[in-house]
Amino acid sequence: MYLLDTNVWLERLLNQERSAEVEKFLAKVSSEKINMTDFSLHSISITLLRLKKGADLLKFIQDTFIDGSVGLIRLEPRNTGLIISMQDQFGLDYDDAYQYAAAEKFNLQLVSFDSDFNRTARGKKTPGEII
CATH number for the domain including 71? Predict the structure, then answer.
């Protein structure tokens, strides 16, 4: 089971340099094995709407959650201590600490392009490393 970081989704949605790598990962791995945090969903929404890509956001939600089976997970307010602990322990900023804490809590493999996770105990994999 995987937790895809915000940057992985945006890489594909914005057709950036490693978009094809993400596309191959998404084609190979069943959506039932993929999770996203609520934090990522809101970050993606902010980014796409800021770029005036509301139609892309609606299609993404349709493909990912309605037609697909990607899991949406969230940390409860009582998990704030875990986020802070991850931030302090590994020197992560809040968004990375949130993703890492969610991966820890739900025992998921973190999939990200962010090298900040390389200094954590769980580490991360890129989509290409998995496929």
Answer: 3.40.50.1010
Domain count, the chain: 1
DSSP 8-state class, residue 52: T
Nearest by Cα to 82 from 98, 68, 65, 71: 98
Per-residue pLDDT of the chain (131 residues; tens, 9 = 90+): 999 999 999 999 999 999 999 999 999 999 999 999 999 999 999 999 999 999 999 999 999 999 999 999 999 999 999 999 999 999 999 999 999 999 999 999 999 999 999 999 999 999 999 99
Distance CA(69)–CA(29), nearest Å, equals 11
Which residue range is the domain that position 12 belongs to?
Answer: 2-130
Give the single-character DSSP code of 91: T
Beta bridge partners of 36: 72
